[in-house]
Amino acid sequence: MAKVRIGHFVEAQMLQEMGVDFVDESEVLTPADEENHIDKHAFEVPFVCGCRNLGEALRRIGEGAALIRTKGEAGSGNIVEAVRHLRHIGNALRRLTILTDDELMSAAKELRAPYELVRIVAREGRLPVPNFAAGGVATPADAALCMQLGAESVFVGSGIFKSTDPAQRAKAIVKAVTHYRDPAMLVEVSMGLGEPMRGLDIASIPEAELLQTRGN
Fold first, then answer.
1. pTM for this predicted structure
2. What is the spatial order of strands in the sheet that 153-154 belongs to?
3. For the CA atoms of 69, 83, 80, 38, what is the dihedral angle to 10 degrees?
4. Which of 22, 42, 101, 106 is 20 to 30 Å apart from 156, CA to CA?
5. PANTHER family per the record (predicted)?
6. Is 71 one of the annotated active-site residues of the chain?
7. Residue 46 DSSP code
8. Is residue 200 pLDDT above 70, yes or no?
9. Distance (Å, rounded) from C-alpha 47 to C-alpha 130?
C-alpha cells in the first residue's frame, strides 16, 4: 500500500504503473487538490480513503473507493477521534435504516451523497465496502474498542512504531483484533508490552493542523 495526495491522480497513475497492491488517498499528506478527490473508477488498482462521517464515506465510495477507514487523528496516539468518527457513522447508518423511501432523497441531500448508495445503505444497514478504523490506535484495548464499535479491522502505524517494543505490540494488536470480545485474552496480550506511544491531547492541536480535516 502506498499513499498519494488527495486529488493527485498522476501520483496514483505512477503507483499503479509500479505495481502497488493498494493506493491510500491520504489526508496525512498535504492535499494536491482542495476541491476534488481522484476518480478511482479510472484505475485498476484499488483505493482506500478516509472519512469522519457517513456522508464522507459515501462520497468516497461513489468515487470508487474499495475500502474506507475512519480518519481518527493519525500520529496522535489518542483514540478519541477514531471513536467519535465510528460513533458518527454507526449512528447515521442506524438512522437511515428507519427512514421511509420518500425520506431517503432528503437524507441523500443532507449527507451530500449519491442517492443510490444511500438506498443501498438504508436497505443493508452497513457500508457496501469494508470499514477499517485508523488514527490514534495505540493499545490492544484501543483496537478491541474500535472493533466493538463496528470497525471490520484496524490500521495501526505510529501506535506500533513509536512504542518501546514495536514487534510485541504489533502481535498483541493483531490478537486483540481477532479476539476483540474476549476480555481474558485482551488482558493476556496487554501484559509486558513496554511503554505505548505517548498520546497527544487533541484539544492542544490547532484546528488548522488537524490531519483529519483535510478532504471532505
1. 0.83
2. 2-5, 23-26, 47-51, 67-70, 131-133, 153-154
3. 20
4. 42
5. PYRIDOXAL 5'-PHOSPHATE SYNTHASE SUBUNIT SNZ1-RELATED
6. no
7. -
8. no
9. 12
